[in-house]
Design goal:
The complex is a heterotrimer of chains A (about 325), B (about 290) and C (about 260).
Chain A (H helix, E strand, L loop, with lengths): L5 H19 L3 H26 L7 H18 L4 H24 L3 H21 L1 H4 L5 E2 L4 E2 L2 E2 L3 H23 L2 H18 L4 H27 L1 E2 L6 H14 L4 H17 L7 H15 L4 H12 L2
Antiparallel strand pairs in A: 1-4, 2-3
Helix pairs in contact in A: 1-7, 2-7, 2-9, 2-10, 2-11, 3-4, 3-5, 3-9, 4-9, 8-9, 10-11, 10-12
Chain B lengths: L2 H31 L6 H17 L4 H24 L7 H22 L16 E3 L2 E3 L1 H23 L1 H11 L1 H6 L4 H23 L9 H16 L4 H21 L5 H15 L14
Antiparallel strand pairs in B: 1-2
Helix pairs in contact in B: 1-5, 1-8, 1-9, 1-10, 2-3, 2-4, 2-8, 2-9, 3-8, 5-6, 9-10, 9-11, 10-11
Chain C lengths: L1 E10 L2 E11 L4 E5 L6 H8 L7 E6 L2 E2 L5 H7 L1 E3 L12 H8 L8 H6 L2 H20 L15 H14 L4 E5 L7 H18 L2 E5 L3 H7 L2 E6 L2 E6 L1 H6 L1 H18 L3
Parallel strand pairs in C: 3-8, 3-9, 6-7, 7-8
Antiparallel strand pairs in C: 1-2, 1-4, 4-5, 9-10
Helix pairs in contact in C: 3-6, 5-6
The chains are: A mainly alpha (about 325), B mainly alpha (about 290), C alpha/beta (about 260).
Chain lengths: ~325, ~290, ~260
């Protein structure tokens, strides 16, 4: 049964885990991995709003991640903008692009929507690879550190804390949105679109809204990533990255905000801890994608939640 | 007509014929199962790489190519049996993820089983270019035109003149009715996956002498083949042929006259334009579900 | 309140609705009946904007609304249920009704993201309203259950509650009693009567259960082959020879056919 406080309970658990993790896994390397997990999780929480709740797939979200990352890289490193302003500019650019393409693209369904979003993402990554003057091309470009009011964000713990707080905030906002007329409208679009429209839900407007929102969130995460990594290549905006984001959402569990975080954690951390399998990274990712859809079509968290609820009576 | 223009035209037609072969694979599987096989490009990669390695082991080229094509057909069957069929109950999004997963898995396996280097193949009949209106044409291009045309003709005869082919079309149109008259829809889907695998591999064998292959070439080739299938109208055989040529020509002319850096982006711009403006493609029936 | 003039809807060669005229006055319970394939559900789909008419006018309070999308018609106060259930199976019972309440809610994105006091007041009021409606249709105890765990009869009532949550002025019910047993049908009849009498909603229903139709409806329109065959009170319809022919004649012929005649 869904209790009104489940939202706060989940957030409290997430906050506790985020505080305890660096204590359980000390060391620079572990913290860096955890920071990468957090950045991917931010993207996935946003993407889950689109895929899990509204039922609209996007195979191009790394494009928005890349726009955010490169906006920060180019505006801060080349143009000397304050990082916060560059980040906002990236979010605005991602949001505008998402808004511009959303209406025609979201009129498509299923495979067609998948292909259209994929095309969009790939076009972004091609532009980023080809504008060598601006982006350094396929070899990448350096990114200056993140500074606010003269203070530089530096050291693994500071980065981890920043990303953890961001993830907590995005999760809180996402949970709030899901449990609101907007979130219900999105789920209604997924459940029975025509009935949603008969209830007065302007389904197109909500699809556009959630597409833009998830793009802006991905862009924000991309900006964080650029400064955190210090070096950026167009691969971060590429097809494989988009697929990884989608797989994280699906593996963790569609229509489950915490599932998206679990999926991001598993898919980011596992390859890091299994570096011996580096050659098998693709094999592993592909096998996980197929196995998830075959054996756990609802994803890890919803499946486990159902099992627990059953065994608990 | 200037020689450069003819040169771009010939290059576009060559690569377009390859896209057409890939697009035919998309359409075959789409007709049989209403599924878009995102792993289609991997068949192309497998066909090329497998031929390279079997050929290098001392097997004559034609036999190596045949073995590679049969192997890709077997991979196509395996993809259906172990990937698509067990996930049959999944949503559209779920099936997309399954075939993308298969694509990444195949790519990864190819990287491990073969290697991660670029490889070429010798052309089928010499490298002495032919001269046409001041432009040059590799003899391999003629092979590509010829084989693609022959394959298209063979498929057309198969689907219109043979009982098995007609049964497949019937099953695609109405699986239940076909089953009632004794056509096994599962078999139809299996044959489609096998054929799509073989067609993709054939494209790989043909294109490798002109463009070196690599374990990661499948993604781009697959997506461009999909663009061709979409332009022509998913599920339409003639559409796949025309779509392939259109995408190949557009890419070649854009690379020549606009910007060679953005050559790879052309196919995706075409995908977006066609999906948004005319989702049923040039030859497709209006089947896109809109409420 | 609702006036339909020369309404036509073709699918390819099939004339599902083929030139229908009728008027539904304000208030009352009205029925549209007819044999299977008469065009009843298509008519509902046209009036609620799910389908676009090929020709003709649909006047709601004198304004031609033909061809407007469903969400625009919902804003004017038209609500409906579906013959083939269109429940949001991915949500709880209460959430289904809350979607029905959508147009009456504070829907600002910032309010939702940051849960402002105004947003919380709106949500609390909506929950009270929805729970009250669920109690009315007998689903109060199920409100936190996932909709996909409900039996068929309960889903029918859930759709009615969801439609009522919009506080419509015109409510279209597509076979509200289909698949319900006698007791459930009686409850639905009482609910329909109460909705009309207490809430002042004009109700139009498509129904095959003639007893329900004759009991609760003041005004009946009979469709056959996409055209209006007859119109009148329950008594007039029961005695109309054309209606008897359309129903009984067909049944008699089918019976004869089935018997090998």
């Amino acid at each position: 049964m869904r209790l009104p406080s489940s939202r706060h309970l989940g957030l409290a658990v997430l906050a506790a885990v985020l505080v305890l993790l660096p204590l359980a896994l000390p060391g620079t390397y572990a913290l860096d991995v955890l920071t990468n997990v957090g950045i991917a999780a931010i993207v996935c929480v946003g993407l889950n709003l689109l895929i899990g709740y509204a039922g609209q797939i996007s195979l191009g979200h790394a494009g928005f991640f890349g726009i955010g990352a490169y906006a920060s890289a180019i505006l801060v490193t080349n143009e000397g903008w304050p990082p916060l302003l560059a980040m906002l500019a990236g979010m605005a650019l991602s949001g505008l692009l998402a808004f511009a393409v959303a209406r025609p693209i979201l009129a498509l369904r299923g495979h067609y929507l998948a292909m259209a979003t994929l095309g969009l993402g790939i076009i972004v990554s091609i532009v980023l690879s080809q504008e060598v003057e601006l982006t350094g091309g396929p070899d990448g470009m350096p990114v200056d550190p993140f500074t606010v009011a003269g203070l530089e964000l530096t050291g693994p713990l500071a980065w981890y804390a920043t990303v953890a707080v961001s993830l907590l905030a995005v999760t809180w906002l996402s949970l709030n949105l899901v449990d609101s007329p907007i979130g219900r409208a999105l789920r209604a679009v997924h459940g029975a679109e025509i009935a949603a429209r008969v209830c007065g839900v302007d389904t197109t407007a909500y699809k556009v809204m959630v597409f833009v929102l998830s793009a802006v969130i991905a862009s924000y995460a991309g900006s964080l990533y650029a400064h955190f990594a210090g070096w950026l290549t167009p691969d971060e905006a590429g097809f494989l990255r988009s697929i990884q984001f989608v797989t994280m959402v699906v593996l963790g569990g569609m229509a489950s905000t915490f599932g998206a975080i679990v999926g991001a954690a598993l898919l980011t951390a596992l390859p890091q801890f299994l570096t011996v399998f580096h050659d098998y990274e693709h094999v592993l990712l592909g096998a996980v994608m197929m196995a998830t859809m075959i054996f756990l079509p609802r994803g890890l968290v919803p499946t486990l939640a159902t099992r627990c609820a059953r065994s608990g009576g | 007509m200037s020689a450069t223009f003819v040169q771009f035209l010939l290059a576009g037609l060559t690569v377009g014929a390859i896209y057409a072969l890939i697009a035919l694979g998309f359409s075959l599987i789409y007709n049989a199962s209403h599924l878009i096989n995102f792993a289609q490009g991997e068949f192309v990669m497998l066909g090329g790489l497998a031929t390279v390695f079997v050929f290098a082991a001392g097997v004559p080229l034609p036999l190596a190519a045949l073995l590679a094509i049969l192997a890709a057909a077997a991979v196509g069957v395996a993809l259906y049996l172990f990937g698509v069929a067990p996930a049959r109950g999944a949503t559209a999004v779920g099936l997309i993820i399954v075939t993308i997963g298969a694509s990444i898995l195949l790519k990864g396996l190819a990287g491990v089983v073969f290697d991660r280097n670029f490889h070429g193949l010798p052309p089928i009949s010499g490298e002495e270019p032919l001269r046409i209106l001041g432009a040059t044409l590799a003899p391999q291009s003629l092979w590509i035109f010829g084989v693609t045309a022959a394959v298209a003709l063979a498929l057309w005869l198969f689907f219109t003149r043979t009982l098995q082919g007609k049964a497949m079309l019937a099953a695609a149109f109405n699986p239940l009715a076909a089953e009632l008259v004794g056509v096994d829809p599962r078999r139809v889907v299996l044959v489609s996956f096998a054929l799509a695998g073989a067609l993709g591999a054939l494209a790989g064998v043909l294109v490798t002498p002109l463009a070196p292959t690599h374990f990661q070439v499948g993604t781009m080739l697959g997506l461009k083949g999909f663009a061709a299938a979409i332009v022509g109208g998913l599920g339409s055989g003639p559409g796949a042929m025309v779509g392939g040529l259109v995408v190949g020509l557009a890419e070649s002319l854009a690379a020549g006259y606009l910007s060679s850096a953005y050559k790879d982006a052309i196919a995706f711009v075409i995908i977006l334009l066609v999906l948004v403006l005319r989702p049923s493609g040039l030859f497709g029936a209006k089947t896109i579900e809109r409420v | 309140m609702l006036e339909v003039r020369g309404l036509v809807c073709h699918f390819g060669g099939v004339r599902a609705v083929d030139g229908v005229d009728f008027t539904i006055p304000e208030r009352g319970v009205h029925a549209i009946i007819g044999p299977n394939g008469a065009g009843k559900t298509t008519l509902f789909n046209l009036v609620t904007g799910v389908l676009r008419p090929t020709a003709g006018e649909i006047l709601f309070h004198g304004e031609n609304v033909a061809g407007r999308p469903p969400e625009a018609l919902a804003r004017l106060g038209i609500s409906r249920t579906f013959q083939n259930l269109r429940v949001f199976f991915n949500m709880t019972v209460l959430e289904n009704v809350l979607v029905g309440r959508h147009l009456h809610l504070y829907r600002g994105a910032l309010g939702a993201l940051f849960r402002t006091p105004r947003f919380r007041r709106s949500e609390a009021a909506a929950r009270d309203f929805a729970e009250h409606l669920l109690a009315r249709v007998g689903l109060a105890d199920w409100r936190h259950r996932p909709a996909d765990s409900l039996p068929y009869g309960a889903l029918k009532r859930l759709e009615i509650a969801r439609a009522l949550a919009a506080e419509p002025r015109l409510l279209l019910l597509d076979e509200p009693a289909a698949g319900c047993n006698e007791a459930e049908t009686r409850e639905i009849a009482e609910l329909i009567a109460a909705v009309e009498a207490e809430d002042g909603v004009t109700v139009v229903l498509v129904e095959h259960d003639m007893q329900l139709v004759m009991n609760v409806c003041d005004h009946i329109i009979v469709l056959d082959h996409g055209r209006k065959l007859a119109e009148g009170t329950a008594r007039e319809i029961r005695e109309d020879p054309r209606v008897i022919e359309a129903y009984l004649g067909r049944a008699a012929r089918e019976f004869a056919h089935a018997a090998g005649g």
